[in-house]
Specification:
Strand order of the largest sheet: 2-1-5-3-4
Structural class: alpha+beta
Protein name: (2Fe-2S)-binding protein
Distance between the termini: 42 Å
Helix content: 25-40%
Pfam families: Fer2, Fer2_2
CATH class of the largest domain: Alpha Beta
Keywords: 2Fe-2S, Iron, Iron-sulfur, Metal-binding, Oxidoreductase
Oligomer: single chain
Number of domains: 2
Radius of gyration: 16 Å
Strand content: 5-15%
CATH topology of the largest domain: Ubiquitin-like (UB roll)
Length: 160
Amino acid sequence: MAIHFSVNQQEVEVGPGEEEMPLLWFLREKLRLTGSKFGCGIGQCGACTVHINGTAVRSCLLPVGQLQGSQIRTIEGLAPTGQLHPVQQAWLDQDVPQCGYCQAGQIMAAVSLLERINQPTDQQISDNMTNICRCGTYTRIRKAIRQAAETHAEKPVTEA
């Protein structure tokens, strides 16, 4: 039986026999969405972080057979119109990446955090940003999250 879900608002189908394939490899090998990276393969480092139904999830261990009806968003889906997401812009403004390998996962974790807590405290940032950066850019990551939160707070609320 085929599994259906969406990736960056595009419907996809997983054929029979592929249900055990980890989402990370489905994204990279089948859909050619290579922003999410393989880091550790055991769900610890976070380089493979994507959003599933709005929640940041490590994709390296999650079989696609468990995703029926899910909504997946990858780093490629953050800027569908070409305009950078505020977190992506803050990452550039704060010169966060050093080697850059973990950055897609870090950004996806930060976006998830800010979608749940629009003005996180330092403790909330520490508690929620559990991805590993081997280069140690944690201070710049924190600054970028603060900048993105301020940018979000400055946007005027529009009445419907």
